[in-house]
Specification:
This protein is of the alpha+beta class. It has 9 helices and 9 strands. A 5-stranded antiparallel beta sheet has the order 1-2-3-4-5, with helices on one face. A two-stranded antiparallel sheet has the order 6-7. Strands 8-9 form a two-stranded antiparallel ribbon.
């Protein structure tokens, strides 16, 4: 790998979520990390083909990355892509997942809360004011994590308009036993506003295959008006979603 090739890889990392170059890489590779998440990757270039190896990350990271790049994943765990554009896309998705997957959202929330609490008057600690601050910071952190995890698009329709997307909890915020549950990206879905409203009120849910379920209290004409007639499915479903969806289905309006 010559100096220009190394510089191009480093730039791709810098532009796509891996702004720190690590100094312990082999001579034929570039190792990169970020101050914003815990993922680390190593990239090699072999005849216009980029080989990416995951060095440090979170549980389930490689499987989630493979959802977006199934053909790139190799039996030994590497991801192989051709061209700088493909490398940039791979790094960008890796960084987004690293920002979203448990328990990165929890770490982000805790850091944001430390700053928010430091700005609160001492008299407000332990009051309704603090509770509202915690909820506001947590909900924004959760929305950001779901935007990262679902690639900025609705989990069902694929609509990529952030202004109409909502972070929907399967196990409601108030029912969660811990902040880890509240901020788990598998405890909910990024949904367009109409689906979010229905999901939030347990009028729709999803079965174990990701197929959308509709409450029988919604009439056929209402289903037509809401565009719920055509079978709808989640774009993907991870095993970690299962326990939260089971909880949600139990509360579905029948």
């Amino acid at each position: 790998m010559n100096a220009l090739e190394r510089a191009l890889i480093e730039k791709a990392g810098y532009d796509n979520g891996f702004e720190n170059v690590l100094g312990d890489a082999p001579a034929d590779a570039v190792r990169m990390a970020s101050a914003r998440h815990r993922a680390q990757v190593e990239v090699r270039l072999e005849r216009d083909t980029y080989h990416l190896r995951i060095l440090a990350t979170l549980a389930g990271f490689a499987d989630e990355l493979a959802r977006s790049f199934p053909a790139a994943r190799q039996a030994d765990g590497r991801f192989i892509v051709q061209g700088e554009a493909a490398l940039a896309a791979l790094l960008r998705r890796a960084a987004a997942l690293a920002l979203a997957l448990p328990h990165q959202a929890l770490h982000t929330y805790e850091a944001a809360m430390d700053a928010a609490l430091a700005a609160l008057p001492a008299a407000a600690r332990g009051t309704e004011v603090e509770r509202l601050v915690r909820q506001r910071v947590g909900q924004q952190t959760y929305r950001d994590a779901l935007l990262d995890y679902w690639g900025g698009a609705c989990a069902v329709t694929g609509i990529a308009l952030p202004d109409v997307l909502r972070a929907s909890h399967a196990k409601p915020w108030a029912d969660c036993a811990s902040d880890a549950e509240r901020l788990d990206v598998f405890n909910g879905f990024l949904l367009v506003a109409n689906l979010d409203a229905l999901f939030d009120r347990f009028l729709i849910s999803f079965d174990v295959t990701g197929r959308l379920l509709v409450s029988p209290t919604i009439s056929p004409s209402q289903r037509d008006a809401l565009s719920l007639r055509t079978p709808l499915y989640l774009r993907w479903l991870a095993v970690e979603h299962a326990r939260y969806l089971a909880y949600h289905r139990e509360r579905m309006v029948t």
